Amino acid sequence: MFTAEEVLDLVEDKGIDAAFEEVDVVTTGTFGAMCSSGAFLNFGHSEPPIRMAEIHLNDVQAYGGLAAVDTYIGATQASRSRPTEYGGAHVIEDLVAGKPIHLEASSPGSDCYPRKEIDTYVSLETVNEAYIYNPRNSYQNYAAASNSSDKTLFTYMGKLLPKNRNITFSSAGQLSPLLNDPHCRTIGVGTHIFLGGGEGYVAWQGTQFNTSPAEKNGVPTGSARNLALIGDMRGMSTEYLRALNIHNYSISLAVGVGIPIPILDKEMMRACSIRDEDIVAPVLDYSVGSSRRPVLAHISYEQFRSGTVELEGKSVRTSSLSSYKKARDIALELKKWIEDKEFLLTEPVRSMPVSSKPKPLQISTKEELE
After folding, report:
1. CA 211 to CA 208: how far, in whole Å?
2. Which residues are catalytic?
3. What is the spatial distance between Cα 191 and Cα 345, in angstroms, rounded to a whole number?
4. Quick one: which of 151, 194, 210, 263 has the fewest CB in 10 Å?
5. Among 246, 259, 66, residue whose Cα is nearest residue 156
6. CA–CA gap between residue 349 and residue 334 (Å, rounded)
């Protein structure tokens, strides 16, 4: 049993063939902002009962269209009273931390649900169900960001200084799950994973799952595959599930994900020996207000992590929005769980799509679509 970082020295010392004979499983990890995240909650019925139509948790709006007392709260939904300070991600973190959450709900009322208002407090212990469901997590090689304009930009990739004076990136690189299993040979629906400090599963391919980017050294050179993940919040930890306030942009949730990769054959062993120096990501110009931002350069994660890179003949500072230390901790924690027989590997019940390319939103009339 090795982490994706530990196995690198073994492969370098002994080679792929010998490493394949020695290694059964490689554990991976990543920890960073994953905006497409949220949680399903069930509050149970009050007396008299209510069908909750408008729901707020600690003043953050949650979805009221899931029958009577179910809701989904999105990580990036902002508080009505503190929109830059508190949001759905904070509610999720506070629930995991065991804190009381203020529940306010209203309803038009009906014969079977006569109650029209409720104002109370709930916690992780008092709700019936509380599980994370994240539609798009653990991106495979997310693009880095820079800014060629004359003004500072505040984005989900952080603060971007003018004239390309900095670059931000967000990936665990050689530790990242989908960079160690780039074609999802072992990762599919039903794969048992580390999620937020507890246990979870791969529920489906993530939204915007993309197999089309070009590859170099066996891995995509841009944002590609990602995963929809599910897991019980009971057992999770604020060590690996943390609310984020991204300055002058919005709110997000930092999620810790770890996935074990069974070494099926020598090709899988080779895939799990990928190094930061062999993984390149595109640097996109975020000053361009388009979903098709220009690519300024392709740079390796070894260069990113050095703190400075060369871009258009200039030395540019780099910084990571994800935590490599936390990614390492996750891979080590998952390794220990497996060694202690506290975590069992599962075979996927459905493979990920072999070919998929997300479509842009087309601005269309009703008549054009009929």
Report:
1. 10
2. 112
3. 7
4. 151
5. 246
6. 22
Say how far apart CA 111 and CA 115 lie, in whole Å.
9
How confident is the prediction along the chain (370 residues), in pLDDT tens digits per residue?
Answer: 999 999 999 999 999 999 999 999 999 999 999 999 999 999 999 999 999 999 999 999 999 999 999 999 999 999 999 999 999 999 999 999 999 999 999 999 999 999 999 999 999 999 999 999 999 999 999 999 999 999 999 999 999 999 999 999 999 999 999 999 999 999 999 999 999 999 999 999 999 999 999 999 999 999 999 999 999 999 999 999 999 999 999 999 999 999 999 999 999 999 999 999 999 999 999 999 877 899 999 999 999 999 999 999 999 999 999 999 999 999 999 999 999 999 999 999 999 999 999 999 999 999 999 9
Q: Residue 92 in 3-state DSSP? A: helix
Are 258 and 181 contacting, i.e. CB atoms less than 8 angstroms apart?
no
Q: Partners of 201 in the beta sheet?
A: 192, 230
Alpha carbon distance 186, 28 (integer Å): 13
Segments making up each domain of the chain, as ranges: 2-9+140-351, 44-127
| Pairwise CA distance, residues 181 & 322, whole Å | 20
How far apart CA 48 and CA 344 sit, in angstroms, is: 44
**End-to-end Cα distance, the chain:** 56
